[in-house]
Specification:
7% helix; Beta-galactosidase, Chain A, domain 5
Length: 354
């Protein structure tokens, strides 16, 4: 019999297991110790290469993701932080609670550079990343011999006389493919038109990230955030080894050809012979923000699709890129993340590495 679990039927797998959790599954838990204490989490293992930790108390953030034993995401020096330690003021407040991880969700009405509008301060990257999911649930669904591992729930950004936006999130993976699917619906339950700024802050870290890595994307139009980022912009796709004191560079990328309906960004690690491929809808997520930080100790690459750039809401309003959501309107967002072992699946890269 073929003992690769991906090739086993449900009944064949049950013959080997008293409890299928020895092969794959979802473990619900509460983190203890340090600033992570009390955080509700799920540990999800698809049994064929992917394992992740998902934080229900932080809008289903994914601090930890591994692919065939190798870490993928970047965890900052804060470590995992419970939402109770969140401080919105300015930039440093958010950063003191920003573990980054493989995915942090930012928004919903503002992201990026802080600013003050009509006397109201907007902090860095909004508040939804530190908002607990309501009615969070997990389940295993069978589709023939394929088991789907599913998390879902919703979170809300709202306050008296302010916005009333809800994000409904469904995260899933299965036992036959090394892929992650994210489906979000954002609904405006209020009675006023509201700015909509949603950012998927994907962060790549060591060992998936090193100096052999290169970025490929069809978000081909690129604008530097500032004059510093413009320096050496022609080499922004090739990542660097750690550099002491490196100052981050940020780029706003978009798709120049409006007829392109399928967007993507791929990170290929030549040394590790692995790749992460993110499939995107450029109409729903027209900007791919790229954060290059090869700084020693803060060694990260942010591949951040969003409804707008991370220059902040004031700048987005001024340049006309700010999106809005009408009263009662629902907007949907779908992302597929594929993890590729180039030693056995190298042909998958040919359509994207050019």
């Amino acid at each position: 019999m073929d003992h690769d679990m991906k090739n086993l039927s449900k009944r064949e797998l049950e013959a080997y297991c008293g409890d299928l959790s020895q092969a794959f599954g979802i473990q619900e838990c509460v983190l203890e110790g340090g600033k992570a204490k009390g955080t509700k989490a799920y540990i999800v293992n698809n049994g064929c290469g992917l394992e992740m930790t998902v934080l229900a108390d932080k809008c289903f953030a994914i601090p930890k993701m591994s692919f065939k034993g190798d870490n993928v995401g970047f965890i900052s020096k804060t470590g995992i932080c419970a939402p109770e330690f969140f401080q919105e003021e300015g930039t440093r407040g958010f950063l003191r609670n920003f573990e980054a991880g493989f995915l942090t969700t930012c928004g919903l009405t503002y992201v990026g550079t802080p600013g003050v509008e009509d006397g109201q301060p907007n902090g860095l990257h909004g508040v939804i990343s530190n908002t607990p999911i309501e009615h969070a649930s997990s389940k295993v669904e069978w589709d023939g011999d394929k088991a789907w591992l599913v998390l879902n729930g919703h979170a809300r950004e709202g306050y008296l006389f302010g916005p009333n936006l809800e994000i409904r999130r469904d995260i899933r993976m299965n036992t036959k493919e090394n892929k992650l699917w994210i489906h979000d619906e954002v609904e405006n339950h209020g009675f006023d038109t509201q700015p909509l700024m949603l950012l998927y802050h994907f962060n790549m870290g060591y060992p998936m990230l090193d100096g052999s890595c290169k970025v490929y994307t069809n978000y081909d139009k690129i604008v530097p955030r500032d004059p510093h980022s413009a320096e050496g912009m022609e080499d922004c796709e090739q990542f660097l080894d750690p550099i002491d004191g490196y100052e981050e560079k940020v780029y706003f990328r978009s798709v120049s050809d409006e007829s392109v309906k399928k967007g993507y960004v791929l990170l290929h690690n030549e040394n590790l012979q692995k790749a992460v491929l993110i499939h995107l809808d450029p109409e729903a997520l027209p900007v791919l923000n790229q954060w290059n930080s090869p700084r020693s100790g803060d060694y990260a690459l942010g591949l951040e699709p969003g409804t707008a750039h991370v220059g902040g809401r004031i700048r987005a309003k001024e340049d006309g890129s700010l999106k809005y959501i009408e009263p009662g309107e629902v907007k949907t967002f779908d992302i597929e993340v594929e993890f590729i072992d180039c030693t056995t699946e190298n042909e998958k890269l040919s359509a994207f590495i050019k």
